[in-house]
Specification:
By secondary structure, the protein is of the alpha/beta class. It contains 19 helices and 16 strands. 43% of the residues lie in helices and 15% in strands. Strands 2-3-6-7-8-9 form a 6-stranded mixed β-sheet. It has a 5-stranded mixed β-sheet with strand order 13-12-11-14-15, with helices on both faces. Strands 1-5-4 form a 3-stranded mixed β-sheet. The chain starts with 6 loop residues before the first strand and ends in a 6-residue tail after the last helix.
């Protein structure tokens, strides 16, 4: 087979998601979006987890040739398999009739034969992981390896780091998937052959955009594929929590817009409100529910946490992907005064939780409601109570003062311009025109977490200072947003005008 037409496991997974994505990988890769910093951080984390997993197999041999030198890696793999008795191979190359893969770990079993291990930086096995494993098992079995076991190695969410040394036997959890992979080998092989024929074609397959563009992964070609596509105004996807059954019923009637949905079609109360707001082209307000934003205790504060969640635990008492708060912002509003602001950012790479707790206790005082947007701050406070038991009483009192504005908005306010989203980034510019996050270098929590980890791991003091400043700006904007949103809702609650 032509060298350029070799089908790797990553390309096989691309084809399993979308044939056009696979074809583009071979014929139009330049159309792909550049990987974001958040995506690169995920790749980096996966690499770190993979390296750590290999330490579970002392004496193993790493095939050093990278993916750009597959033939050399294949030669080295065969030499090691034939000429040594190593307990494991890391990144061995396997091939069968143009299908290629690099196995994460190939473990020699004590009773003979081999075990294929796919390492994933997640805490649970997903269908796409099993598909990945089946593809490797087919190639490995056809290449002559005596395979007797196979599975997926994930991180163990229940493991708690003691702060001294990672216990690699407990940090990881092995999931046996040998029988399932064997059962699906024939189907996998057939799909792979179809994909090999597909990539030989000079003509791109005709595939329309849809839900598959985002599952199991965001497709890097979506920007190109969706260019020039006219999307319907107020599509049925704007109805929150629309069940698969209801979606299929609407699809069967070729109903793609919310205003096309018949009046007697079964919808939830919130879905009905959204449909009505779109049909009547107006804001719908429940003044009685909305009045809650004015009845809370003064002085009113607004709280937002930023967190990062390392796959590999860094601090004593934490588990894989535990959310660790590193920054908070508090805006305080008092009658007749401009809002005041304070924050705390942990600028060193040690455990921030004790200092975060102390700074927060000082920042929010002992009275007054604390507005949040969603339940995330409640969850972080609960984790802090467990992590810093000496501050548990005061942190618990702070938790009791939280007021979730998102709950109120979901029940009491809908504007057609929200387009089905109640996120703060959607609500803020609708309620407060000319407001938003577009002027910020960091404008979402996921990117904030990535940049924070980049900063604390960096030795460039100038770069660290710049990132820390950007993080503070972003977190401050979140609490300024909840302050302005509360004010806007208060004005609406006191008015009878819902237009």
């Amino acid at each position: 087979m032509n060298e350029t037409h070799r089908l790797s496991k990553s390309k096989f997974l691309s084809g399993s998601q979308c044939h056009l994505r696979l074809w583009n990988d071979f014929h139009a890769a330049k159309l792909a979006d550049t990987a974001s910093d958040s995506q690169l951080a995920v790749f980096k984390s996966g690499h770190e987890v993979g390296e750590l997993a290999c330490e579970r197999y002392p004496g193993g041999h790493l095939i050093e040739h990278d993916h750009l030198h597959f033939d050399e890696a294949l030669t080295e793999t065969n030499m090691v398999l034939e000429g040594s008795n190593v307990p494991a191979l890391f990144e061995p190359a396997i091939e069968h009739e143009g299908l290629i893969a690099r196995v994460d770990i190939l473990e020699r079993l004590p009773a003979g034969g081999w075990r294929v291990i796919e390492v994933k930086s997640t805490t649970r096995v997903k269908p796409v992981h099993e598909l990945d494993l089946a593809f490797q098992l087919y190639i490995a079995s056809k290449s002559g390896l005596d395979l007797r076991e196979a599975g997926i190695l994930t991180l163990n969410r229940e493991y708690v780091y003691d702060g001294k040394k990672l216990d690699l036997n407990e940090l990881f959890r092995f999931h046996d998937r040998f029988e399932q992979a064997v059962e699906s080998i024939d189907i996998t092989a057939e799909q792979a052959r179809e994909m090999q024929e597909l990539i030989k074609s000079e003509e791109a397959p005709d595939v329309e955009i849809g839900d598959h563009c985002f599952h199991p992964y965001d497709c890097p070609y979506y920007t190109d594929c969706s260019y020039g596509v006219e999307f319907p105004e107020y599509p049925i996807g704007e109805l929150p929590n629309l069940s698969k059954k209801r979606r299929e019923e609407l699809d069967a009637e070729n109903i793609i817009r919310v205003h096309e949905i018949p009046e007697d079609f079964p919808l939830s109360e919130r879905q009905q409100i959204i449909r009505r707001a779109i049909l009547e082209e107006r804001v719908i307000v429940n003044h009685e529910v909305l009045s809650a934003v004015d009845s809370i205790e003064r002085p009113i504060r607004h709280l937002d946490f930023e967190t990062f969640a390392p796959a590999i635990p860094r601090f004593k008492g934490t588990s894989p992907f535990d959310a660790i708060p590193f920054l908070f912002s508090v805006h305080t509003e008092r009658e007749g005064q401009l809002p005041s602001h304070t924050d705390y950012l942990h600028e060193s790479n040690d455990d921030p939780r004790i200092k975060i707790a102390d700074a927060l206790i000082e920042a929010v005082g002992e009275s007054g409601a604390i507005c949040t947007y969603g339940a995330y701050e409640q969850r972080i406070l609960s984790d802090l109570i467990e992590a810093v038991p000496k501050r548990a009483k005061k942190l618990g009192e702070i938790s009791d003062r939280l007021f979730d504005m998102l709950k109120v908005i979901r029940r009491a306010y809908y504007h057609p311009d929200l387009h089905g989203s109640f996120s703060l980034k959607s609500v803020f510019p609708v309620l407060c025109p000319d407001s938003g996050y577009d002027d910020l270098d960091i404008a979402d929590g996921q990117f904030a977490a990535v940049q924070y980890m980049n900063a604390i791991d960096s030795e460039d003091s100038k770069r660290r200072k710049q990132i820390f400043s950007q993080l503070r700006e972003y977190c401050e904007r979140d609490t300024l947003a909840t302050f302005k949103v509360r004010q806007a809702l208060s004005r609406i609650a006191q008015s009878e005008d819902t237009e």
